[in-house]
Write a structure and sequence with these properties.
D-Maltodextrin-Binding Protein, domain 2; 12 helices; 5-stranded mixed sheet; alpha/beta; 2 domains; 3-stranded antiparallel sheet; single chain
Amino acid sequence: MQKVRKAGLTAAAIASLIIAGGLGISQNKFESVAHARATDNKTITLGYVNWEEDVAVTYLWANLLTKRGYHVNLQMLDLGPLYAGLSRDGVDVFLDAWMPEQRQYLNHYGSSLVSIGKWYEGVTKEGFVVPQYVTDVNSIADLKTHASEFGNQVIGIDAGSVEMQIAQKALNDYGASNLILVPSSDLAMITTLIKDYKAKKPVVVTLWSPHWIYSTYKLKYLTDPKGDWGKAGWIQGEVNKAWASRNPEVLKWLRNFKLTENQLEMLEEYINVAKSPQVGVEKWIRENQKTISAWFK
């Protein structure tokens, strides 16, 4: 699932990150970073994609590791460059490997990686989503006959994402190609959903779980009898193998890391409404000391 998905991360917040190479970074750059840090076990580079849950848990761990004396670099990357960096020791940790969607990356880079295992205790899901007040549309098959109610469109995310490819296939398979799949961004999609929801207008979007929006708005997935959107999945973390061998204690902490669906959605929500991700993370940490203590045993 190669999506760009983060609502509420401001330009100021992004500018505050230590970002190497923007949305891409060369092999030489990764190798030079790796060489410079080869013997520095107190510096950790967390790579992340601009997705709600990835931003949330990456900022969480940046905070926790900094408090334990580590210097944390954050690199926001597209998924492909991130896995390339992770395999070359230019990125140490990636916490948001959605499975089985990212299996292709593990097949390609897996010999250079070590898994920290599944940390999200819920299941992942993707599909077409409408507000619960849209009572006469419950299946993707219903979209064909109710297209005009949605303005003959489905609001999606970035055009190059795997999710949009699946969405278009599903519309075709269910005979609902009379709806136009409109590419946008995660922020634009969420903004449209919230605006129409508050106006009680019919709206259909491509969406996924976990996501903070389900804790605030009453939404439902359209059923998918043909299975175009696939089965429920999970989220695990991956780390660079060489880094793991140098940092067994941090690897142990990461393997102890577990979040329930409610905990993750609350963390995302705190970040979404806070003036900065750091402020949202600090609030969540104050309220979840018992959970956090178990990770560092």
